[in-house]
Amino acid sequence: MSQVDVFINAERIAARVAELGTQIRADYGDVPILCIGVLKGSIVFMSDLMRAIPGDVRCGFLGVSSYAGTESTGIVRITHDLKQPIEGQHVLVVEDIVDTGLTLEFLLKTLTVRNPASVRVASLLDKPARRVVDVPVDYIGFPIEDRFVVGYGLDLDEKFR
Ligand code: IMP
Description:
By secondary structure, this protein is α/β, with parallel strands linked by helices. Helices cover 25% and strands 32% of the residues. The chain has helices spanning 10-28, 43-52, 102-112, and strands at residues 33-39, 57-68, 71-80, 90-98, 118-126, 139-143. It has a six-stranded mixed sheet, sandwiched between helices. Strand 1, helix 2 and strand 2 (57-68) form a beta-alpha-beta unit. Bound molecules: inosinic acid.
């Protein structure tokens, strides 16, 4: 990558995250929300989104890996599991970006068998043109075209986060 251009600026991100936080709390009502951040790309979005959701918000982290360079390997594996049970809890999976959807499909299967009260998904970015599996994304920060983006937590082989 020879040059990095600003694609979505910090002000737009902050404004959208604030909107999402308000919308998420309005949709859930007065229940505790367990935000599960998907490591590592979601950490910046996760920390901002958690603070934008009023009321009782808890957090956990799941690490998954599927990418090498700018291409998904298609094989998703857990690199760091949750440290707490999620049974009976309202889970909000927090992703940086949904691309092919393979990571999210794997995550939703992995989490659903643990019997949460509900599972929804919030993703900062969505690249619908790249989807190979149909996955539900309840809250989308910004739908984007098919281009590789970095920053605000997203990396290219660990660089540019
Ligand atoms: P998927 O399984 O193809 O949907 O890919 C999901 C994961 O791939 C995301 O959580 C990111 O970590 C990574 N990813 C996909 N597109 C990009 C990108 O444009 N920039 C950085 N990471 C990306």
